[in-house]
Amino acid sequence: ESKFSKTQLLIKKKILITAGPTYEAIDPVRFIGNHSSGKMGFDIALAAAENGAEVILVSGPSSLSISHPNVRLIRVQTAVEMFDACDSVFDSVDVLVGAAAVADYRPKHVADEKIKKDADSFVIELEKNPDILATLGNKKKEQFIVGFALETTNEIEHAKQKIVKKNLDLIVLNSLKDEGAGFGKPTNKVTFITKNFDIESMPLKTKEAVASDIVNKIIEHYA
Ligand code: CTP
Ligand code: CA
Predict the structure, then answer these.
(1) 107: CA distance to ligand 1 center in Å?
(2) Reported pTM
(3) Whole-angstrom Cα distance, residue 88 to residue 182?
(4) Which of 60, 115, 179, 189 is at 20 to 30 A from 205, Cα to Cα?
C-alpha cells in the first residue's frame, strides 16, 4: 500500500523528473560520481503518479526501481545523456522537477583503455556539463519548474540566485546543517522558496513526506 495520497488532481498532467547521480567516465572502468541514491526523485515520481500524473522519470545510476503504470523510467549514465533525454520531451510536459545530483563537470578526454598506474601523479582535465534546468528553464513556455539547491553558505541568497538564473518557479533548498538530513539519510530538512521569493521553512521530515509536500505544491499551482 502506498504512502502517498491518491487525489487524481494531477490527471492529464505530464511531469518530467530527474533523479540520482550522473557518472562521468574517466576510462572504461572508472568514473566521477556522487553519493545521490535517487530516492528523492523516485519518491516524487511515485507521489505524482499516485495523484494521476503521467510521469517520465530520467534517472542516473541508482539501485532503486519503480513500478507504476503511470511512470516511464529512462535510465541514463551521464549528464549529457540526462540532458538529451529531458530535452527531447520537454516541449510536451507540463512540469519539470530537477531532483538529480548532476555532475557539474566531466573529464575532457575519456581514455579508450584502462589507465595504467605508470605515472607518479597525473591531472584529469574537466569541462563543464550542460545545466539541464537552466537550459530548459530559459526556453520554457508554460512549464512549472521545480529545482533543488544544496548550499553550505548564504543558503537563502544562493538559492534565490538559482531561481533567477535557471528561471525556476520553486526551489527546494536542502539544509545540510541538520543532522538527519542529506545523502543516504531517510529524512530531509527543506525550505521552499517561490519565484516571488516567498520563504517557507519545513520541519525535519521523511523523504516520502517531502515528496508529498512537493507534489502538493504542484497541485496547488494548478488549483
Ligand atoms: N542541475 C541541472 N544540471 C546541472 C547541474 C544542476 O539540472 N548540470 C540542477 C539540479 O538537479 C538542481 C539544481 O540544478 O535541481 C541546482 O543544483 P546545484 O548543484 O545546487 O546547483 P548548480 O547550479 O550546479 O550550482 P553549484 O553546484 O555551483 O552550487
Ligand atoms: Ca552543482
Answers:
(1) 18
(2) 0.96
(3) 30
(4) 60
